């Protein structure tokens, strides 16, 4: 009877969710709930297994931030060792030299199994912080210590390092090193890039970044053929330079690889200069060399300096002129006579140089390199799908695309060529008018030439807007850039006619100059409004996919608003919108002038 009472009392008491204590190892292995009975739980007792409880258990994984801090210490220690070796070398060979420059003689220097054989001093200017800490060996070969697969923090964001800490070693915020592998002679650079030793994963990622973000506005490379020779050991020097230029431009449009972009750029430029020094005389220049200079020039326009980019672009222009017969098709070309893909790459390379020549020339008001009369022997590029799929197509010429009113131009690259041509005609029109003023020629020639250019401008703008509506232009970065260039050309033409009207005090009576000026004023006002509308769409696009020459139409438009602010208070608000857009692009491109030139 007392026993039944005890059972009744126990059943009325609510059971606890879990008995105190730790679960045994057998229950943990089977992933079942342990009743924590002592000296043996129910599961171990029924299965005849010894019940073992491990207390206390160590915490899982390393402390947060421990791996990054550890790797920063390793990198700092490696830098300290290099500096000590440098000081010892200076004391042995230059006992009187009191210079503190961090230049290291790499003779017989081995770190983490990496041996430097070059006799030139090494330099390293990568700032290594606690946010993106990689060891010296990893930055050289793209592999973290103890990682056999070649992964690095640049590859996937995770780094595997040794777990042995370095006690008592404080990590500074920034540690400066000298430039590894960039001080050597470029003639000693091997084709497989052992001089920089970028890991295979990084190479594949940079290639993909290029075709995702750069190829759209510089469609000059056939992807399958590129990957075919890029994976080959027997690459030419021009091909190696092209690959370096592609990686340099890809790094400039990626936040992930910007820490190696500067070194890639210097490495690429030295390789191209070394290649140019070997290509003296009347030897034929490979198309990859021209492509590399063009891509490097675009990178310099964006990230280095306008003048440096203009000089590099000029090298590509001269190489094309020097090998003009390689790029000329002629009217009787046959698709079966030559390698169509190779010829298409050369055509596209020329047309990219042609567009860069005109866009940058109008920004600088300088003389263009390529004459439009010489374009009669070079066909327009084929569609991108036909080019990549190697579908041989016989395309038309530029003159046909300019004069045809009902031709559907489905290639964005061709549309870019057309707007560059019309803008080049506007620039040539301005330069010719300056010559006419010097020789006091009649203004009749100016107005006839102006009407000719303006008619073509309005016709091509209508064709472009008909086949690419505003919604399509705003969603595609290449079309958005082309739309901006069309509106900028209208504003440029208005500036010309305004200047001519001020110089011509007494126009001929048979010509209606005031009516024409009013018409141009109306068109420029509409173009300025549309330009501001397109500019606002830039904030809705991925900043890394915006056309790198977008600051050119923005800066020209801003100059127009500054020059003709008397047209109304609306222009002041539009100027503010333009300058804000340029300010947003300054972190991605330095092609436009400083915003301090424009009043707010």
Description:
By secondary structure, the chain is an all-alpha fold. The protein folds into four domains: 19-57, Zn(2)-C6 fungal-type DNA-binding domain (CD2-Gal4, Irregular); 63-184, no CATH class; 215-396, no CATH class; 401-597. It has helices spanning 2-12, 25-30, 42-47, 66-93, 136-141, 153-156, 200-213, 223-230, 237-252, 258-278, 287-303, 306-322, 324-327, 340-364, 384-388, 398-403, 412-438, 444-467, 470-475, 477-503, 513-536, 551-563, 570-585; strands spanning 109-111, 114-116, 123-124. Strands 1-2 form a two-stranded antiparallel ribbon. A hairpin with a 2-residue loop joins strand 1 (109-111) and strand 2. The chain is elongated, with a radius of gyration of 33 Å. 37% of the residues are buried. Residues 1-11, 96-195, 505-510 and 593-600 have low confidence and may be disordered.
């Amino acid at each position: 009877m007392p026993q039944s009472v005890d059972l009744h009392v126990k059943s009325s008491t609510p059971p606890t969710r879990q008995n105190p204590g730790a679960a045994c190892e057998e229950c943990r292995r089977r992933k079942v709930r342990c009743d924590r009975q002592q000296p043996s739980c129910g599961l171990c007792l029924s299965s005849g297994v010894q019940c073992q409880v491990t207390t206390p258990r160590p915490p899982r994984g390393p402390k947060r931030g421990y791996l990054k801090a550890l790797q920063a210490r390793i990198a700092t220690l490696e830098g300290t060792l290099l500096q000590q070796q440098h000081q010892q070398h200076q004391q042995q060979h230059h006992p009187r030299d009191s210079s503190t420059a961090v230049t290291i003689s790499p003779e017989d220097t081995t770190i983490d199994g990496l041996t430097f054989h070059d006799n030139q001093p090494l330099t390293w200017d990568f700032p290594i912080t606690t946010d993106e800490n990689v060891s010296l060996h990893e930055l050289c070969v793209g592999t973290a210590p103890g990682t056999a697969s070649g992964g690095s923090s640049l590859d996937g964001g995770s780094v595997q390092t040794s777990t042995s800490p370095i006690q008592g070693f404080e990590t500074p915020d920034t540690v400066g090193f000298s430039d590894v592998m960039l001080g050597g002679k470029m003639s000693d650079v091997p084709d497989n890039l052992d001089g920089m030793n970028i890991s295979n994963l990084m190479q594949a990622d940079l290639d993909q970044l290029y075709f995702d973000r750069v190829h759209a506005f510089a469609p000059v490379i056939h992807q399958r053929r590129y990957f075919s020779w890029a994976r080959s050991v027997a690459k030419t020097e021009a091909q190696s330079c092209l690959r370096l230029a592609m990686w340099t431009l890809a790094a400039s449009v990626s936040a992930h690889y910007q820490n190696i972009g500067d070194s890639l750029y210097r490495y690429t430029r030295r390789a191209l200069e070394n290649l140019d020094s070997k290509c003296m005389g009347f030897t034929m220049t490979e198309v990859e060399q021209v492509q590399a200079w063009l891509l490097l020039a675009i990178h310099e326009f964006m990230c280095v300096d306008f003048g440096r980019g203009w000089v590099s672009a000029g090298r590509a222009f001269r190489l094309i002129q020097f090998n003009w017969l390689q790029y000329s098709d002629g009217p009787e070309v046959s698709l079966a006579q030559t390698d169509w893909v190779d010829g298409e790459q050369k055509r596209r390379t020329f047309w990219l140089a042609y567009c860069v020549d005109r866009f940058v020339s109008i920004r600088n008001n300088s003389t263009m390199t390529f004459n439009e009369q010489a374009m009669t022997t070079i066909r327009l590029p084929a569609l991108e799908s036909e080019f990549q799929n190697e579908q041989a197509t016989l395309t038309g010429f530029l003159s046909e695309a300019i004069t045809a009113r009902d031709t559907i131009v489905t290639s964005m690259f061709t549309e870019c060529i057309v707007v560059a041509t019309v803008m080049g005609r506007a620039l040539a029109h301005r330069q010719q008018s300056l010559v006419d003023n010097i020789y006091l020629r009649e203004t009749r020639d100016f107005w006839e030439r102006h009407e000719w250019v303006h008619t073509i401008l309005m016709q091509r703008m209508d064709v472009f807007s008909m086949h690419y509506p505003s919604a399509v232009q705003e969603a595609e970065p290449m079309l958005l850039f082309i739309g901006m260039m069309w509106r900028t050309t209208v504003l440029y033409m208005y500036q010309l006619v305004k200047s001519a009207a001020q110089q011509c005090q007494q126009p001929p009576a048979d010509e209606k100059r005031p009516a024409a000026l009013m018409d141009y004023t109306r068109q420029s006002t509409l173009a300025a409004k549309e330009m501001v509308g397109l500019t606002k769409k830039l904030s809705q696009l991925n900043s890394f996919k915006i056309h790198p020459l977008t600051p050119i139409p923005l800066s020209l438009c801003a100059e127009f608003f500054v020059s003709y602010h008397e047209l109304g208070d609306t222009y002041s608000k539009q100027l503010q919108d333009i300058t804000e857009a340029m300010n947003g692009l300054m972190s991605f491109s330095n092609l436009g002038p400083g915003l301090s030139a424009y009043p707010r």
